[in-house]
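seq:
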Amino acid sequence: MTITPYHYTECGLDDVWIEGIELHVDLAGKAVYRIPNFPGLHREIARSIVCDGVGMTGPELRFLRTELGLTQQELGNILHVEALTISRWERGENPIHQNAMTVIRLLAVERLKLEEIGIERISRQSVSDAKSARVVVDGTDPENYRAQRKVA
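struct:
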């Protein structure tokens, strides 16, 4: 067993790394990572997007929408836009509207029971210039994952 950073692409985001998780080798000699507490991990990734991020990329929107358990149509209804608009935002074809970003963040805080942050802070983070940031999650305590965003 070794502890090594793991590039966690299974969440749909390109730059999420988990540090401090165990690497095992199975009987076939293949490296296998054990990631306990998926709900806690995804909640912490969502928290880092909502609370620490500036702007929002299409994949981050898709991640949050999925964590919220919403279809593109359902999120579109909440934001008063067409499902096609949500799809275009998620694919990066169009920038995500700042007011929509604010509502999405507030919705995530409420439904995912994330830390309370003020509307003014959320509004300041909801800018059209999304900055790509690596998310590094401390996985040494799976009951208390902690993520940090590191702007590229």
